[in-house]
Each structure stands twice: as C-alpha cells, then as structure tokens.
Design goal:
Rossmann fold; 2 domains; 5-stranded parallel β-sheet
Length: 290
Amino acid sequence: MEIVIITGMSGAGKSLAIRAFEDMGFFCIDNLPPQFLPKIAELASATKDKISKVAAVVDIRGGELFDYFKDVLKELKKGMYNFKLLFLDAHDSVLIKRYKETRRKHPLSAESDGSILEAIQKEREKLEDIKRYADFTIDTSTLSPKDLKDKLFEIFSAQKSQETMLITIMSFGFKYGLPLDADLVFDVRFIPNPFYVDDLKHRTGKEKEVKEYVLKWDVTKRFLDKLFDLILFLIPNYAEEGKGQLVIAIGCTGGKHRSVTIAEELFELVKSKGYRTSIFHRDIEKDVKG
C-alpha cells in the first residue's frame, strides 16, 4: 500500500501533480480534509490490493480543518502506513505572476484584503511546520508542466521497484535566487571565473574548454576532494534516516560556468558509486555572467 500526500503553496502546481499521479495509476483525491486521510488509508488497505496506490492533495483550501494536518501525519506514522509527503513550493514572485495570469483568487485572499502577496505570506506561515515533514520538496519556480510531470515520474514511478534515495545534483545562479528545494547548497564563486575569458564567456560549463579552465586550478582540486569526501559521507547517513530525496545545489553567479562544471563532476562521482542520481542545470540557458 503506497500513499502520497501532496501539499504545498497554492499556485505551485498541485493540480498538475495530481494529474501526473493519475497517469502513474494512483487512485487520486483532490482537496481532501486531512482528518479523512487515516480512513482513506484504512479503506484502501481493505481492498486487498485492488487499490494499492493512493495520492491525495491536502492544502489550505480545507480551512480550519487544515489546522489538524500535523496531528494527522503523526497518527498515520503510528499506524505504520507507507506514506510519503510531497511538498510543492515556488518563489513568491512566481506565485504572484501565476495568480495574475490565471486571474484566480488565492484561498486566503479574504483574510488579506485582496493582497496576493499578503495571502502568500500567510500561507507560508501556516505551512512552515508541515514542510519540515516533507519526504520530497520540489521547487516549481522554473519548471514547465512537462518538467514537473517528468520529475514526479522520475521520483515516484521508480519507487515501485526501488526504494533507494534519489539524489539530484543541481547547478544554479545566485543572482536568480536560491533553489527552494535544496537540502545542501555549496557556493563556488571563489573559483576563477571563465566569464572573464573572451573565448569562454559565451560557452557553458558542460563544454570541454570551460571544464578544463574551471578544473585546472589548485583551489578547485582541493575543493572537489573535500566536497566528494563530505557528500560520500552524508549520503548513506541520510539514506539510513529514511530520506527519500537529497537535492545538492551548486551555485555560482549566473549558473552558467563554474557551478555547471562542478555539478557535472559531482554527478559523475555519485553515479559511479551506484546511487540513483539525476542532474539539473537550472539557469544554464540564461545569458548572464557565470
């Protein structure tokens, strides 16, 4: 019996997510009051595998009922149900843009005098404790609907046959903001910058010439030795604690040169150790400083 509880910020993609779970063969329920979760789990278990996978969206549309969500999660854990909590998030500016484009009302707009930003901030406060319970957190700020669907398939379709932790290596640019779903963040802006080399300025960290430039420095070699040692120490310890996903973010100024090269190096190392690993270059296509 597999249960995925989907929650997170309004506008972060929960409706898209529930459709993806339908495509994966889950029995799906949207806008479920949290108090119903134990009963749904009990009823699904009683079907003797006729319903073996359930995905339910639980969010602040539940009003006052949502206030009991944390207590319900504790109850589910006591019941030994195999459930995962998926939290979808996005930067405030992205959420505001999405609401303006769709012209939909935020669920907390009545409490915020119609201010979208104030409603978003109130929702963040309500979800702060819930987010700490998440097994998987996905920042959808830069993801297209297809990207989100692919990411969910990557995580949850593999869960059927393999319960090992998924490790995502991400490069990003600090000027575009920190990734909200990162568990570990490393700043590589101390490495000499290929942006200031005319022949490398408009290339990316995936190209041979840029890689050679970034990796040739002693400071880079020393950093990679220390980074590799730390990551290979942390991964089995996170896995031992039952963590389902580990997102390691490598950042430089614009996410085009140094962070990409270092992320690629770390990805190859982790993959070579037999871990389930993916890589994502968030800002590589943005034509800015590296």
